[in-house]
């Protein structure tokens, strides 16, 4: 789900708001700016968990910049069940605020953003907050938790009597049946935060900009540019007011992860075991299944045809459009890894366009979230299940999954392929890339793909000759094929859980029934049907992204798959279908192996049938989630 921050203009405050919300909510939510044009033209509402409005800390008693048709769209979103959070706003009740005649006339003309609750008949309008000069507030008190937080000293010039003027409306506001006071200023007792029901939705407004650094009320470009890329300085400044922001989010039903949002300052090598705090990619490891170590050597020789040995110059460098690849020999692996996982990090080392790849099987201590030995064993078992035996290995010497590029923390498995044409067209296929976390995960179009812990993220490269037997018009079916392989791969994992030696007949029936809850939503999204108190709810757990590049009578294809396997709520995942006693260890590795083995067989059949989807149509329709 998305948290959308309204950005009619670019400003340092908007940048800081997005940065702060990302540090708190990612990877459970995607935090993105949204423009007026996108509000009016894009179907953003179904995937929006929260819409955020921010007021400038240097402008007081101004209505929001959300006007006209855009205001109407957001109003309908809230009335239909959406949530809005206003930061830096108090609210006025229509008809009760003296001195705001111009604002009210705009309300009557429908030009300005307002919220109207039909049930109570109340209409309110947000306006940027201004602190009082007569009774300056020093603290904000959160009523539910009893927490009292110190406020920053405002450097801006407040409007005289503004807070006391707002206080004159308190009686009218607090008598509103659809309003709840969340926090108060001290010592003035004025409302600092409130929440109200609007139709089927909710809105909360906090007078203080609890999302901005507490030591600065009017951040400028110089401040924003000085914040380290990992946000550590900003987070330390925000820390005093973070409980208020967290409470604001939770009051609107946003599930805030319990883990600490502050990056570690430890100088020891990093271990990626949970939500990563590093802002740069780590080295990746290129290795093959243990029985065929020569595959890596063959890969490097093909990628660097001028080099006759893989033991010569290290690193071997490939400069490409988006990234520069550095391939390091195995003996350099520990040195390279420690250089990237030890603090402080040098600027050169933190370059996200440099892709450092170590040609060796990684030590398990470097990759606690992915066990390569389990993956290769599961891949062999899955191939047996789908009748993909070793004698079916293609002429180039290896099958999909035999050669693996793994990274604990990468920019994007998909971008590494499709934004680097030299690497894409020059390396022998197939190559599978798996990551535990992504910094810039991609979905369809311009969408971000949230990369939570327990999510399987992988991309793989394929190549096919174009001609009379296989035309470019057949490529549209690859996304359908991949989506079908994901569902069939997951179903195979579920069925395996119910067929083990320790499984009971009831667990076998249960696992088989759960397999039927994994569906394809056309064209390439993966959904599960979860049993809830409200009945069966359909929730997205994954998707497929396919990119193609043409040249020399062939097509290079990159298939990207994102699948929530062990992800925690509010995200839906495969594990949430399973009772605890049926959740196996290393389920991410087993799921990846099952999907890869399934797709490899389907891809071979697809090519052998000239790119026809007919052999798969019946099964696709059977797995299709009908609306």
UniProtKB/TrEMBL annotation:
<dbReference type="Pfam" id="PF09825">
    <property type="entry name" value="BPL_N"/>
</dbReference>
<dbReference type="InterPro" id="IPR019197">
    <property type="entry name" value="Biotin-prot_ligase_N"/>
</dbReference>
<dbReference type="GO" id="GO:0005737">
    <property type="term" value="C:cytoplasm"/>
</dbReference>
<keyword id="KW-0436">Ligase</keyword>
<comment type="similarity">
    <text>Belongs to the biotin--protein ligase family.</text>
</comment>
<dbReference type="Pfam" id="PF03099">
    <property type="entry name" value="BPL_LplA_LipB"/>
</dbReference>
<dbReference type="InterPro" id="IPR004143">
    <property type="entry name" value="BPL_LPL_catalytic"/>
</dbReference>
<dbReference type="InterPro" id="IPR004408">
    <property type="entry name" value="Biotin_CoA_COase_ligase"/>
</dbReference>
<feature type="domain" description="BPL/LPL catalytic">
    <location>
        <begin position="389"/>
        <end position="607"/>
    </location>
</feature>
<dbReference type="InterPro" id="IPR045864">
    <property type="entry name" value="aa-tRNA-synth_II/BPL/LPL"/>
</dbReference>
<protein>
    <recommendedName>
        <fullName>BPL/LPL catalytic domain-containing protein</fullName>
    </recommendedName>
</protein>
<dbReference type="GO" id="GO:0004077">
    <property type="term" value="F:biotin--[biotin carboxyl-carrier protein] ligase activity"/>
</dbReference>
